[in-house]
Amino acid sequence: MLSRKEFLRLTGLIAAAAAIRNSAGSSHKRRRGPVVISTWDFGLAANAAAWNILKNNGYALDAVEAGVAVPEGDPLINSVGLGGFPDRDGRVTLDACIMDENFNCGSVACLEHIVHPAAVARRVMEKTPHVMLAGEGALRFALEQGFKNENLLTPEAETAWKEWLKKAEYDPQPNWEINHDTIGMLALDMQKRLAGVCTTSGMAWKMHGRIGDSPIIGAGLYVDGEIGAATCTGLGEEMIRMAASHSVVEAMRSGKSPQAACEAVIKRYYKRRGNKAHGKQVCLLAMDNEGNVGAFSLMPRFVYAITSNGVHEVREAGYLLEK
Ligand code: SD4
Description:
Layout: H1 4-11, H2 13-18, E1 35-39, H3 43-54, H4 60-72, E2 94-99, E3 105-111, H5 117-127, E4 132-134, H6 135-144, H7 155-167, E5 183-188, E6 194-200, E7 221-224, E8 228-234, H8 236-241, H9 244-253, H10 258-273, E9 282-288, E10 293-297, E11 303-308, E12 311-316, E13 318-319
Parallel strand pairs: 3-4, 10-13
Antiparallel strand pairs: 1-5, 1-11, 2-3, 2-6, 5-6, 7-8, 8-9, 9-10, 11-12
Helix pairs in contact: 3-4, 4-5, 9-10
C-alpha cells in the first residue's frame, strides 16, 4: 500500500507531465519485467496491490483482479464498486469484465449488492460456460459463489443522488466532472502473460438497466496475448460504437505501437463522428505484449497510473481536441 506522503509525491508528477501535451503516454522502449497500468490517478493504489503479485512472479490475471479490488472496496470513490453513484432510481448497478491472454473472458453487467464485480466476472469466466451474466441472474450467481449481499449505496452517494433528483437533469459530462470514472487495468507478468480488467458503477444517474462499455469484451476491454491489450474510460456509448479496445488491439496487430494505435483509433472516431463527438470524453489505454504502453484521449485531462521496476507514476495522456 502507498503511504499518503508517497501518494501525494507521485500525484505531483501529474503537473509535470501536463506540461508536455502530446509527448506523454508513449514509451517505445522495450521493458524488462512486469508492468501494470490503469486509468486515472486512483490507479496508483490499485497498481500497488497488483504490483505485490507481479513482483513475486504472480499471474497477471490475479494481479489485475487484486488491483481493482482496491477502488472497488473504497467507499470514497464514487465511480466504482462500493460508494458508486446510483442510477436515477437510486440503485447502484455495477459493470465489469476480465480477460486473460488466451481469449478466456467473463463479464457481469448491471450487478447489484456485490462490492467486487470484477471477481464475479472472473467466476463467470472460470465456472460457467458463458461469458456474460446480467442483472438478477448475475446477482444470483454471485451469491451462489459465496459473495456477500451488501448495501453499496453509501450515505454520501445517497445525498448526492437526492440532490440530483431536485432537478433530475441527465447530462453526461466529460470525465473531469465527478459523474463517471472507470478503472481499467492491464498487466504483463514475469512470464509475459497479459491480462486486463475493467470495472465501474457506470454513469451516475443513468437509466436503470443502462449498460456501458465496461463489461463488454471488445469495447471496455480486450486482450490478445500474442499482440497486446487495451482498455477504456469515458462515455461508454461512444466506446461501444467504435468497439474501442478491440480496435486498438487490431491496430497494434497491424504493426502500430500502443501509442500510435490509441491515437489512430481516436482520430478515426473523431473523423467519423464529427460534431457528435464534441463534449464527449473518450480515453484509451494500451499495452503490447512486451510491456510498451500508450494512452490517448479525445479531450484533455486523461491521466493514468503506471508501475514498472517498482516505480509508480501518474502520467497525463496526449489528446486530440482542446475542448
Ligand atoms: C461507462 N465507461 O459506464 C463508463 C464510465 C467511465 O470514466 O469510464 N467513466 O460509460
